[in-house]
Amino acid sequence: MNPQHSAQDIVRCDLCETPVPPMCCDVCHINLCIACVGIHLSDRSKEHKVVPFEERGSTINYPKCQEHSSKRCELHCIHCNIPICASCVSSGEHDQHEKLDISKILKTKKELIEKDLLELKNFICPKFQQAASKIPTQKADVEQHSLQLTTALNKQGEALHKEINNLIQKKQSEIEEMNEQHLAAITTHEDAINKALHEIKLVILDLQKLIDSDDVYLVSEYNSRNEEFRSLPAQFQVTLPTFSPPEIKREQLYQQLGSLSQLLFSYPLTDEAARTTEEYGDRKKTPGDVSSLPTRTLSDKPRILTDIPIGYNDLNNVSCLSDEEIWTHGYNNIMKLYNMKGEILKSVQTKSGNDPKDIAVTRSRGLVYADYGDRSINLMKNGPIWATPSSSS
Fold it and tell me: Model pTM?
């Protein structure tokens, strides 16, 4: 064969390689020249149907009947979900059952396969490829941000000289650890995308084979997987850590070196998780309720930011008015408003003189407390206390 003309000389007899064979076996799916037709038909181990090459693919390979081995099934019983032959119909076993021509089922399945194949090729696969292409940029951004953190840390460390070198190394380790966590999270996301992309490509190959197949069993057994590929794996949202250097104080070297915020991951609520959450609200709990909700990485090292001395022997309740102001009450009828330095900004006695059962604040900075003694809810804001009696039970 001339390599320069091999593209035009691709159709040959599968037995003797004679070019442009005029016949083919629609059952065995091989091309045959006139001389090889008889040779092929002499193989009686299976059935054959030799047709002109132009009519290839026109023959449906009907399955053999499980009940009547000599018959071919041209119908499908919807009720029993099995192929049936003419003898099955004559037996009366399927008289009251809906029946369909197998060729119609084959056509419907192939239409679904073609639709899924187009969606996988034109939409799902490109979407995953685009997501995969963004991963290197995300990794580069992580490295860049990590470098910025390291630069800021080293600049502050130089001001503290040799006595804080060990602390600098400790903070550096924290950055590197979070950097590894972030890269690991992105790599995990990348692996999920690549795994799905690999599966999508395999499905595409399988669907292409099914499109060309006349095997009723293979085609009829097809179940679409497009739904599981329509959504990308959940993309986390990350809150990047920041480095904030304070004024240097030798007695507080570790704190003065700077606080490094935690690396946080947040994931969008998936459709399935949203449905689970909705059902959970209606008290329809399922075993997957907890795992399906979005999660984020929490710090293993809680930090005490400040200690506020307020002088209570027994503190009963607190409610934050703002980031800098806190309402408190103990086991008495006095409620006190403190700032973060422990200074009393305001002190209020309950209207009835009873101890408040609970306290809260409103969006408009009002103080609300429950009076168990006179069964009332009381609101105070820039003036007198207004009481709302509770209805009796």
Answer: 0.37
